Amino acid sequence: MRPDEPTDSAHPTLAVVVLAGGLGTRMRSRTAKELQPLAGRPLLSYVLEVAEAIEPAQRIVVLNPAKRAVLEILPPGWQVAWQEQPLGTGHALVQALPLLAPGIHRVLLLFGDHPLLTPADLRRLLSEVEERCPAVAVLTTVLEDPAAYGRIRRQDGRVVGVVEAREDTTSYRGPVEVVSGATCYDRRWLEEALPRLERSPSGEYYHTWLVELAARTPWSAEPAITVPASPETALGVNDRLDLARAEAIVRSRVAERLMRAGVAIVDPSTTFIDATVEIEPDARIEPFTIISGQSWIGEGSRIGPHAVVRDSRIGPECEVLASVLEEAILGSRVHVGPYAHLRPGTRVADDVHIGNYAELKNARVGRETRIGHFSYIGDAELGERVNIGAGTVTCNFDGVEKHRTVIEDDAFVGSDTMLIAPVRVGPGGRTGAGSVVNRDVPPGGLVVGVPARPIAARRARRRPEVRGE
């Protein structure tokens, strides 16, 4: 089967066309509007996802050549129509027509800057189309302030057209029905109607004028209909203010989804969780916490308050208190914080404690190891049951290259120890407080001083006998 032919799908005669050709100048950004981050994902990805959820036979996105970066986020199966000049939505729709496969009967138009559409919205629109067979069906909503949205015009209850905001001089009192981000067309009618679009005073061709053309078309059924949706659906993102409003709504949806799945979010209004994050049931997210990227939180873990977690994996029954984790992996029952910083490459095994003001970078930490406080562990490998005293630093950088420190099982590193990498502390090795270790410590050995020198291990002090015991 050729890629331009419809495939097996829930809607085998439907093509989705997503318009993403506008230059988005109101965003005032070097990044294309469709690539602006929205709760951890590019804005356009939400529209593409909702389009794929209804399983159309064909998927087309219309782009301007200046926005080739958008190609990097297109899922497999999407075709691209190029709009060389940004002459409006009607003109963009014309560019997609040559790509339509022969078996396509209906065209569903979506906008790349309307990320709040849901599959339920589109399924409801398509259901009405199947039942009523119009030439044009517009998803609409009702707003107290129509703002920059096209306004539906009716006569005797019937839809007769859409007035673009910049062409409208009407003063409204009360709610206004506006265009809401999705329109479905009969393909044959659309191909005949598009050449009849006239250029607006602003120099653009509006797709919304197709509604008026449809209303004047002899049609066996009602030629133009509307299907209602929630006010959220109408929100298009044109500038930074719109982006912030959309972000708040998406994050609210994410929090609701997680809480319904069994995650405790103590205060959703002060908690920011990306749409890409996965959290297992019975995890607890405390206030003022940010969890972003490809993070995963295990069952029963407690994150926050005041934690920042990015692209990290946190195992079951962990606690991360007022700390920052970046591209780190924690095992089970790990305690971190407060005020710790786990930087990229940190891998922590089960039952580890990382306390106040500890910083780890590119470090591996074995089971039951304790890093109490005020320590820097960088480019290091710690074994099991290691004790890191307060103020310990792995001096990993010699001014030219990074070097690695290895501290093996059951070692005890005294407070304020400086470990000059590359260096190894053998199993059971010990360092005295304030030592500067620039040579390997043998298994079971004890080193002290600046620079550290080996000394014989002291015998355990015997408790003096007490008469009468």
UniProtKB/TrEMBL annotation:
Active site: H373 (proton acceptor)
Gene: glmU
Role according to the record: Catalyzes the last two sequential reactions in the de novo biosynthetic pathway for UDP-N-acetylglucosamine (UDP-GlcNAc). The C-terminal domain catalyzes the transfer of acetyl group from acetyl coenzyme A to glucosamine-1-phosphate (GlcN-1-P) to produce N-acetylglucosamine-1-phosphate (GlcNAc-1-P), which is converted into UDP-GlcNAc by the transfer of uridine 5-monophosphate (from uridine 5-triphosphate), a reaction catalyzed by the N-terminal domain.
Cofactor(s) the record lists: Mg(2+)
Subcellular location: Cytoplasm
Residues that, per the record, bind acetyl-CoA: A390, S415, A433
CDD domains with a match to the protein in the record: LbH_GlmU_C
Cited PANTHER family: BIFUNCTIONAL PROTEIN GLMU (PTHR43584:SF3), NUCLEOTIDYL TRANSFERASE (PTHR43584)
MobA-like NTP transferase domain span: 16-141
Pyrophosphorylase: annotated segments: 1-240
Stretch list, region N-acetyltransferase: 262-469
Pathway entry: Nucleotide-sugar biosynthesis; UDP-N-acetyl-alpha-D-glucosamine biosynthesis; UDP-N-acetyl-alpha-D-glucosamine from N-acetyl-alpha-D-glucosamine 1-phosphate: step 1/1; Nucleotide-sugar biosynthesis; UDP-N-acetyl-alpha-D-glucosamine biosynthesis; N-acetyl-alpha-D-glucosamine 1-phosphate from alpha-D-glucosamine 6-phosphate (route II): step 2/2; Bacterial outer membrane biogenesis; LPS lipid A biosynthesis
Single biological process term from Gene Ontology: lipid A biosynthetic process
Keyword terms, alphabetized: Acyltransferase, Cell shape, Cell wall biogenesis/degradation, Cytoplasm, Magnesium, Metal-binding, Multifunctional enzyme, Nucleotidyltransferase, Peptidoglycan synthesis, Repeat, Transferase
Entry similarity comment: In the C-terminal section; belongs to the transferase hexapeptide repeat family.
Reaction equation(s) it catalyzes: N-acetyl-alpha-D-glucosamine 1-phosphate + UTP + H(+) = UDP-N-acetyl-alpha-D-glucosamine + diphosphate; alpha-D-glucosamine 1-phosphate + acetyl-CoA = N-acetyl-alpha-D-glucosamine 1-phosphate + CoA + H(+)
Protein name in UniProt: Bifunctional protein GlmU
Main location: cytoplasm
Species whose genome carries this gene: Thermalbibacter longus
Subunit structure comment from the entry: Homotrimer.
Binding site for UDP-N-acetyl-alpha-D-glucosamine: K33, Q83, G88, T89, G150, E164, N238, R343, K361, Y376, N387
